[in-house]
Amino acid sequence: MTQTRTTRLERGRSALGPALELVHTGQAPTRAVLTAELGVTRATAGAVASELETLGLITVDPHPTAPVGTQGRPSHRLAVNPRGPVALAAQIHADGYRAALVGLGGHLVATAPGCGTVDADPAQVISEVVRTGAQLLSDTGRRCVGAGLAVPSAVAEPEGTALNPLHLAWQAGAPVRDTFSASLAEAGITHAAGGPPVTGFAANDLNVAALAEYRHGAGRGAGHLLVVGTGHHGVGGALVLDGRLHTGSSGLALEVGHLTVDPGGRPCHCGSRGCLDVETDPAALFAAAGRTPSDRDSLLAQAGELIRTEYATDARVRAAAGRLVDRLGLGLAGLVNILNPDRIVLAGLHRALVEADGERLRGVVADRSLWGRSGSVPVLPSALEHSSLVGAAELAWQPVLDDPIGALGG
């Protein structure tokens, strides 16, 4: 490295993390845009981009081009390195688990599902999903920067314990983060050969899904993003404020599944009745439609398929979906009144509902809320197929985004 380039890089080292995040989230497709967004000189931006390329994180097109029909100096295109390092992501839900490798930009490199039932001992399934992830790493030969776990429970901070795994047979307070970290060490998943085990993170599945949608999906550009969605059982929610998850004082905020939307409704696992958790999840759809799900696929997948294939042709399915839409709209209206979001993104089965009858849903939100009526809050389907996995990977990528050289040992 020349002295001039060294000086430029030292001047711009503090910009490495922000630069990587801009490329990671698609906000800096060219070096010219990167220069403008960082507020640095072209030479400093060039040195920063070159260092990120040396670290194997991004690619810099050596042949600068200008968009068709534009004037001015051509600029080098920037992109995440498709062969770069990955984060190991894991999601556990009532019907099993899924492991994945996720690169920068939220790109899924490989995925693998597993098991049809989740053991009452969290260590059992966590160990299984980690071993599955370790096999993916072995098969692809990728370097791992860290690992994230998404679980269907609020995760208390700083303890890393699952406080309310209502849809799993786990005891409240299961030490999911410590168990995950121990499984990573046991599986020998390290940053480099002979190095220490990668760091493991754990969080609520809807929280990390919201982070993924904000950075890579339908939530891009929102200032106050509300995400509500169904898992395989139950309903969760999350709020992203100016790019940061709002998790409350100890990680337990936005338990929206236990908003009452029908006081005389179905009994809820929490002890109440008529909560969003039991009025708008996949089981509620099958019950309202008078259908019995099979054992061949996950309840969430079957519910989505039912709406996609029979909503237009079966009156009972259409009526059942309408019932869920009305209950969901009531819950969203209450959240709009309290939180005043500028965008709502719906995931899981709720994504299928807004795609099937978004006009009806938006009408309920507008009619039953103050800010929905006056501000026309956009209600959108999620854009990511595996948002909780992508979000779990974001937890692992964050230290690299904060300090690329420090995190990767450069």
Automatic annotation (TrEMBL):
SUPFAM superfamilies: Actin-like ATPase domain. InterPro entries: ATPase_NBD, ROK, WH-like_DNA-bd_sf. Belongs to the ROK (NagC/XylR) family. This is ROK family protein.
